[in-house]
């Protein structure tokens, strides 16, 4: 599968999803919000197991390929202004979802491909 067939989707702020009722959301938006929330929860859970006073302020941007069967692959950190530990926490949160749930019926047709390039930003403050 060629990368250019994938759609780039940047999900940085949960607030983007709070603008509409669930009934008015498209299947893509609902799926993305659920994936975002699930990875964000995993990240928060991972943060509980480390001394947060030692974490460096900054951001970590991770990018991965999400296939229609829910498989996450080719995850990589594309920007890190924090540090190694912070990047590892993000990588763990994403890898915990390596086999996420399949796309809803019809979503591949809406997307126009059976994979998408996803980018998430995690902020450390």
SSE topology:
Elements: E1 7-11, H1 27-47, E2 58-67, E3 72-80, H2 84-95, H3 107-111, E4 115-124
Helix pairs in contact: 1-2
Total helical segments? 3
**CATH topology name:** Fusion Protein Consisting Of Minor Coat Protein, Glycine Rich Linker, Tola, And A His Tag, Chain: A, Domain 2
Unreliable spans: 1-21
What share of the residues lie within helices?
Answer: 25-40%
In the CATH classification, which architecture applies? 2-Layer Sandwich
Global morphology:
elongated
Number of strands: 4
Radius of gyration: 15 Å
Q: Kindly, what is the distance between the CA atoms of the first and last residues, rounded to a whole number of angstroms?
A: 38 Å
- List SSEs in N-to-C order: EHEEHHE
> Strand pairing plus helix content: what structural class?
alpha+beta
State the major sheet: 4 strands, mixed
Fraction in beta strands = 25-35%
Task: Provide a quick synopsis of the model.
This protein is an alpha+beta fold and 125 residues long. Helix content is 30%, strand content 27%. Strand 2 and strand 3 form a beta hairpin.
Question: What does it look like?
Answer:
- The protein has 125 residues and is of the alpha+beta class.
- It has a single domain, classed as Fusion Protein Consisting Of Minor Coat Protein, Glycine Rich Linker, Tola, And A His Tag, Chain: A, Domain 2 (2-Layer Sandwich).
- Helix content is 30%, strand content 27%.
- It is built from 3 helices and 4 strands; from the N terminus they run βαββααβ.
- A 4-stranded mixed sheet has the order 1-4-2-3, covered by helices on one side.
- Helix 1 crosses helix 2.
- The chain is elongated and about 45 Å long.
- It starts with 6 loop residues before the first strand and ends with a strand.
- The relative contact order is 0.26.
